């Protein structure tokens, strides 16, 4: 069993580009032995069988070009042995093959103008790096589309919250409860779907009382009264001194009561 030699064929996919992709090519013997087959590996991402055929037609007529499932390698079948030998000779010299892209086609695949065909769609298919760029753009459609998706999600979320709120109110109404909703303005009571709903009044008064208590507490303690650590230490020390002073006063008062014999222990 002999091992076929593998050659590297340089490919410049865009005319004038400094980047060169290297393809691995070697002889390929088919089982039926019809035609001269060539194995090609290292094809650019997004390459099609039409592109593979056009790449090697410069060496001779190509009767068939087939890609493997991963589409990174394939088989090129020349109409004669001369085409395969020409491609291997070109690769053995280290020369670079330039590909200018698919040949322009008339609409309809070469027919009359105005007829639609598949040629234009294949010609616009991205290959190589453009495949990754197209996938990146498809995954990130833009701020406008993203904003529209966020708005739709928020609308659906608000509707779901409103539905749950109505279900809770209906459940409480069945049990005889009065639903109190916090709102501004005077006290109002209404019936919604058999549920008694009270807005304003007690709810707003409770909120105002809580706000007034919080404001009074802030005014009493003073602004940033306990912000620094030394302020907290001084406050605790003053409280301790005051407690000791009260204790001494109580002890003196007790001694005076004992001295006047007016003290009657329980």
What does this structure look like?
- The protein has 266 residues and is α+β, with helices and mostly antiparallel strands.
- Among the domains are: 7-98, Alpha-Beta Plaits (2-Layer Sandwich); 147-209, no CATH class; 227-257.
- Helix content is 45%, strand content 18%.
- It is built from seven helices and nine strands; from the N terminus they run βββαββαβαααβββαα.
- It has helices at 49-56, 81-92, 119-123, 129-139, 143-174, 202-221, 229-259, and strands at 7-12, 21-28, 36-41, 62-67, 73-78, 96-98, 178-181, 188-192, 195-199.
- The strands form two sheets. A six-stranded mixed beta sheet has the order 4-5-3-2-1-6, with helices on one face.
- Strand 4 (62-67) and strand 5 form a beta hairpin.
- It is elongated, with a radius of gyration of 45 Å.
- The relative contact order is 0.07.
- Residues 103-123 have low confidence and may be disordered.
Largest sheet: 6 strands, mixed
Order of helix and strand elements from N to C terminus: EEEHEEHEHHHEEEHH
**CATH topology type of one domain:** Alpha-Beta Plaits
Q: Care to count the β-strands?
A: 9
Percent in helix: 40-55%
Q: Average pLDDT, to the nearest integer? A: 76
- CATH architecture name of one domain: 2-Layer Sandwich
**Relevant CATH superfamily of one domain:** RRM (RNA recognition motif) domain
Q: Globular, elongated, flat, extended or rod-shaped: what is the shape?
A: elongated
Distance between the termini: 120 Å
Alpha-beta classification: alpha+beta
Low-pLDDT stretches are 103-123
User: In order across it, which strands form the biggest sheet?
Assistant: 4-5-3-2-1-6
Q: How much of the sequence is in beta strands?
A: 15-25%
Radius of gyration: 45 Å
Give the count of helical stretches: 7
* CATH C-level category of one domain: Alpha Beta
Pfam families: RRM_1 (PF00076), RRP7 (PF12923)
Keywords: Coiled coil, RNA-binding
GO biological process, one term: rRNA processing
GO molecular function: RNA binding
């Amino acid at each position: 069993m002999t091992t076929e030699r593998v050659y590297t064929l340089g490919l410049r996919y865009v005319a004038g580009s400094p980047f060169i992709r290297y393809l691995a090519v070697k002889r390929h013997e088919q089982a039926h032995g019809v035609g001269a087959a060539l194995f090609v590996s290292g094809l650019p991402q997004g390459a099609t069988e039409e592109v593979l055929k056009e790449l090697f037609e410069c060496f001779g007529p190509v009767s068939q070009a087939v890609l493997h499932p991963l589409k990174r390698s394939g088989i090129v079948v020349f109409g004669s042995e001369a085409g395969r030998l020409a491609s291997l000779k070109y690769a053995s010299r280290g020369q670079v093959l330039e590909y200018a892209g698919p040949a322009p086609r008339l609409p309809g695949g070469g027919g009359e103008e105005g007829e639609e065909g598949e040629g234009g769609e294949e010609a616009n298919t991205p290959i190589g790096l453009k495949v990754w760029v197209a996938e990146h753009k498809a995954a990130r459609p833009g701020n406008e589309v993203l904003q529209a998706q966020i708005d739709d999600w928020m609308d659906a979320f608000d509707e779901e919250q409103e539905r749950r709120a109505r279900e809770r109110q209906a459940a409480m109404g069945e049990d005889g409860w009065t639903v109190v909703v916090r709102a501004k303005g005077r006290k109002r009571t209404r019936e919604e779907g058999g549920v008694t709903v009270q807005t304003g009044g007690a709810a707003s008064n409770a909120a105002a009382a809580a706000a007034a208590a919080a404001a009074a507490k802030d005014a009493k303690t003073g602004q940033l009264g306990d912000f620094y650590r030394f302020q907290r230490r001084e406050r605790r020390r003053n409280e301790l001194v005051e407690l000791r002073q009260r204790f001494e006063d109580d002890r003196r008062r007790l001694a005076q009561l004992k001295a006047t014999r007016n003290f009657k222990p329980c």
